[in-house]
Amino acid sequence: MLRPADLLRPEEASGLDLATQGYGVGCWYLLAGERLRAIAIFERVAANRLWPAFAVIAAEVELAELSR
User: Which domains does the chain have, with CATH numbers?
Assistant: First the structure.
């Protein structure tokens, strides 16, 4: 069974992989009740250079919602 950390290895994830896998992992942490971990992942995804990617935009939305 894969763990979220298996999908998002900091030394390997970048670009589109970071955006798509990172957003999914961030959502998993959020749904698992690990809010701070989710925020850290969403922040990393939102800082991605591929800002037009859906997952980057979605991570920015998640961060905005979580900051309320």
Answer: 14-66 (1.20.58)
